C-alpha cells in the first residue's frame, strides 16, 4: 500500500478523515444554533469523556458548524496555572471580528470592553509588558468589566458581547477545551455568566469539553449548573461506527478491509477513536495490497502499540514523578488484568497494594489529579483518564 496515500490521522486534536459516530451531536448542535439565532431559550453545552475519544475533534467540528452559520466564534484551552481573563479575551476578540457587526462604533465599544476585561488582570501598577492587548487598537472602556471581581466582570462582558450579536440576528459561541482545568473562581464566574445570558435570552453560548469529572466540578461551583448545561458524554465507537471510521477513508483511496481485519481492529482498539487511527495507519503501511487482511493487522499491531507507547501513553507517564508512577502502577495492579479499559478502583485498594495508609498517599493522588492523569468520579474511587493505561503499565513491568 502506498504510504503517501495513507488516509489515517492519529494526531492530538487532528480531525480524522471520517468523523464517525458523532452525527447525533452535530445534528443537535445545529438545532441549538438555529434556536438561539431565533431568540429561543437554549442551554450551553458540555462534552465529557476520556482522553482519546475525540472531544477536541468534536469541539472543532461544532465550531466549524457555527462558522458556517455566520456566527462569531472563539476557542481557548484552559490551563491550571492561568486565569480565564486573557485567553477568553483573545477568543472573544476573534469572535467579534468574525461576527462582522455593521456598526463600527458599536463593535469598537465592545472591543474596548474586552480590552478592559483583559487588562484588569494586570492591575494599575503593572509593567508595560504585562499590560496585555490582543491587537485591539481602541481604548479600554472604563467602568465596564473592570471591577476586579471576575464574576461581575464576566457577566458584564458577555452581556455586551451578546447585545452586539443580537443586532446581527446571529450569535457568538465560545469553545473551552480542558474545561476542568479552570480555576474555581473562573468556573463560578462562567456559570454565573451563562445563567445571566440564558435569563436575558442573549445569543451567546459556551461549549466546553473536559474529562468525565467535569460535571462534578461545575456542580461544586454552582448548584444550578446541573440545569444550566446540556451534558453529552463522548464515548468509544460501536463496532459499526468503528468499521465506518476505517473503511470510508480506505474506500476514498480505492482500498478495502476484509471482515476479519475489521473485527481484529475492533478487538485491538475497543472502539477508541485515537486508537482506531493509530492502528489504521500502521495496518495501511504494512499491508502489501488491498484488501487489508487479519494477517496484516497481526503484523501491524506491534508497530501501532510501539507508537502508542511513546506518543500516547509514554508522554503522560513521563510527566509523573517516581512516587506518582508507583501510585499509577498500584492502581493498575488493584484493577487487575480483567478490568475494562476505564474501570475505577478504590483508593483503599491502591493503598493496600502499596502496603501504606491511604492518608499517606494523598499527596501523590492529588498531584496526579492536577496533572490530569487520573480523575475521581465518586468519593473514594479513582480511574485513569486514558483508556488502557492500566494495561500499558502492567506491560511495562
UniProtKB/TrEMBL annotation:
A matching Pfam family: AAA_16
PROSITE patterns, per the entry: CYTC (PS51007)
Keywords: Iron, Metal-binding
Any one Gene Ontology molecular-function term assigned to this protein's record: heme binding
InterPro entries referenced in this protein's UniProt entry, alphabetically: AAA_16 (IPR041664), Cyt_c-like_dom (IPR009056), P-loop_NTPase (IPR027417)
N-terminal signal peptide: none
UniProt xrefs under Gene3D superfamilies: P-loop containing nucleotide triphosphate hydrolases (3.40.50.300)
Classification via SUPFAM superfamilies: P-loop containing nucleoside triphosphate hydrolases
PANTHER family from the UniProt entry: ATPASE DOMAIN-CONTAINING PROTEIN, DNA-BINDING PROTEIN-RELATED
Entry protein name: AAA ATPase domain-containing protein
Amino acid at each position: 500500500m502506498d504510504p503517501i496515500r495513507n488516509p489515517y490521522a492519529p494526531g492530538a486534536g487532528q480531525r480524522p478523515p471520517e468523523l464517525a459516530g458523532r452525527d447525533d451531536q452535530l445534528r443537535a448542535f445545529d438545532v441549538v444554533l438555529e434556536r438561539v439565532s431565533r431568540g429561543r431559550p437554549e442551554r450551553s453545552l458540555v462534552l465529557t469523556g476520556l482522553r482519546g475519544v475525540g472531544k477536541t475533534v468534536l469541539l472543532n467540528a461544532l465550531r466549524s458548524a457555527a462558522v458556517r452559520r455566520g456566527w462569531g466564534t472563539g476557542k481557548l484551552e484552559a490551563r491550571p496555572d492561568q486565569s480565564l481573563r486573557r485567553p477568553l479575551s483573545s477568543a472573544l476578540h476573534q469572535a467579534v471580528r468574525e461576527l462582522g457587526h455593521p456598526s463600527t462604533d458599536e463593535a469598537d465599544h465592545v472591543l474596548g470592553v474586552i480590552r478592559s476585561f483583559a487588562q484588569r488582570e494586570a492591575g494599575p501598577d503593572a509593567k508595560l509588558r504585562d499590560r496585555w492587548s490582543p491587537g485591539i487598537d481602541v481604548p479600554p472602556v472604563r467602568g465596564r468589566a473592570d471591577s476586579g471581581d471576575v464574576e461581575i466582570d464576566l457577566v458584564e462582558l458577555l452581556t455586551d458581547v451578546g447585545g452586539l450579536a443580537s443586532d446581527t440576528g446571529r450569535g457568538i459561541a465560545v469553545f473551552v477545551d480542558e474545561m476542568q482545568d479552570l480555576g474555581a473562581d473562573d468556573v463560578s464566574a462562567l456559570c454565573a455568566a451563562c445563567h445571566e445570558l440564558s435569563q436575558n435570552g442573549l445569543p451567546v453560548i459556551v461549549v466546553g469539553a473536559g474529562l468525565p469529572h467535569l460535571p462534578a466540578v461545575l456542580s461544586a461551583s454552582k448548584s444550578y449548573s446541573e440545569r444550566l448545561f446540556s451534558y453529552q458524554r463522548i464515548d468509544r465507537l460501536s463496532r459499526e461506527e468503528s468499521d465506518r471510521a476505517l473503511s470510508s477513508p480506505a474506500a476514498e483511496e480505492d482500498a478495502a478491509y476484509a471482515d476479519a481485519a475489521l473485527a481484529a481492529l475492533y478487538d485491538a482498539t475497543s472502539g477508541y477513536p485515537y486508537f482506531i487511527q493509530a492502528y489504521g495507519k500502521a495496518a495501511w503501511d504494512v499491508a502489501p495490497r488491498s484488501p487489508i487482511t487479519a494477517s496484516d493487522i497481526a503484523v501491524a499491531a506491534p508497530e501501532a502499540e510501539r507508537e502508542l507507547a511513546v506518543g500516547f501513553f509514554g508522554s503522560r507517564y513521563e510527566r509523573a514523578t517516581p512516587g506518582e508512577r508507583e501510585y499509577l502502577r498500584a492502581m493498575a495492579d488493584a484493577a487487575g488484568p480483567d478490568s475494562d479499559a476505564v474501570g475505577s478502583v478504590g483508593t483503599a485498594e491502591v493503598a493496600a497494594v502499596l502496603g501504606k495508609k491511604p492518608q499517606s498517599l494523598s499527596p501523590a493522588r492529588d498531584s496526579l489529579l492536577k496533572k490530569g492523569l487520573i480523575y475521581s468520579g465518586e468519593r473514594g474511587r479513582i480511574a485513569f483518564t486514558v483508556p488502557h493505561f492500566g494495561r500499558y503499565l502492567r506491560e511495562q513491568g
